[in-house]
Design goal:
It is built from 14 helices and 14 strands. It is of the alpha/beta class. The chain has a 5-stranded parallel beta sheet, sandwiched between helices. Strands 10-9-8-13-14 form a 5-stranded antiparallel beta sheet. Strand 4, helix 5 and strand 5 form a beta-alpha-beta unit. Helix 10 runs antiparallel to helix 11. The relative contact order is 0.13. The model has no long low-confidence stretch (mean pLDDT 95). The protein binds arginine.
Length: 400
Amino acid sequence: MTQRINKIVLAYSGGLDTSVMIKWLKEKYQAEIIAVAADLGQGKELVNLEEKAINTGASKIYIEDLREDFINEYIFPALAANAIYEGKYLLATSLSRPLIAERLVEIALIEKADALAHGCTGKGNDQVRFETAFYTLAPYLKIIAPARTWEFKSREEEIVYAQKHQIPINVTKKSPYSIDRNLWGVSIECGLLEDPWVEPPKNAYQITISPQEAPDKPEYLEVYFEEGKPVGINEKEKMKGIKLIECLNTIGGKHGIGRVDMVEDRLVGIKSREIYEAPAATILYKAHKELESLVLDRETLYFKEIISQKYSHLIYQGLWFTPLKDSLDAFIKKTQEKVSGKVRLKLYKGVAEVVGRHSENSLYDQKLATYDEGDLFDHKAAEGFIKLWSLPYQKTGKNI
Ligand code: ARG
């Protein structure tokens, strides 16, 4: 006989799926439902959530402001790693999942719950990220993913169920897209976007203006870093994490920065078309990388590119709480010791272009680089250098 489940902790957003899920889980398992909603900077969605969850049948709701943790423990490490998936996606959604999962587990332990539940479908990456984290952090807890097994085949069927059970839902017109938003960016899929040939319609984008409609005048911006972390914008006015990222999202969004349209490889083996908006993330990624190119030596830079790619895969594939991730963090942390300074960017019609960089730890030496007077580079030494550099190929090469 399978063990009875008495208490379930559910990752709850207040949307149709997870609202229906509260009732559905409660009926199916005759269990108490604890809803958990996480604030990761998604905007207004958390208003009235408590009332909604309780009216739907949850016995309790935790509304957790995880924004600081998200920035310090997820966003900044990903930035230090220059993590970007398949060269385009700055991983806003992927990064948020292990954090939410960890909090769910913590609450399950506080509440002495015996199961964890989430609203992800059987086709996406998020189910893998949540459940891999659950299994890693608390393998003794049961996992329930109703959306993989329940009887509803469409949104309409869920609405009928909600009405039958007096579940309060906003049956306002649903956005034609599936949208996930947090401080690090917005992920948008479904609807028209499922055809990879179709250009994303204007209304698909949430936080950026189209580059065509962006101001005709460029805007300059300076971003300050200390040991790989952004600590200020312009005139070194110190800005705390949340404010700094929100501010860059606003400024970048106004200039149409950070839009991405891509076909990506999901963990479950399929390709999917998704569009992203990540103004702050794009600006910070570019600026951070640029500063690294000024202060890191060539071999460290090259090696770090390999690490970046691996790190982006670990994030995307839900392998956050793993030994390899910890080891890569140790490497990355060491590389960031010298990544302090400032980067100047020009924002203009969808592009954030780096136009200046400065650091006390700069390895750039103008006396060696100059083609003007004052050149200290030993030109004669180049002759011997090239002879030895090419020596192996004098033997293996294509003598004619
Ligand atoms: N494809 C992205 C990822 O796996 C985002 C997934 C969530 N997207 C959404 N529109 N609900 O990280």
